[in-house]
Amino acid sequence: MLHILIVDDQPYLCKLFQHELLEDNCHIIGTGNTESIKRYLEDSMPDIVLLEISLHGFEGWDVLHYIKMKYPDLPVLIVTSYDNYPDDPRAYEADGYLLKDFMHLKVLKEKITNILALREKPKVPYPRIEGKAMLPLYKNNLQSAIT
Question: Does the residue 130 lie in any domain?
Answer without folding.
Answer: no
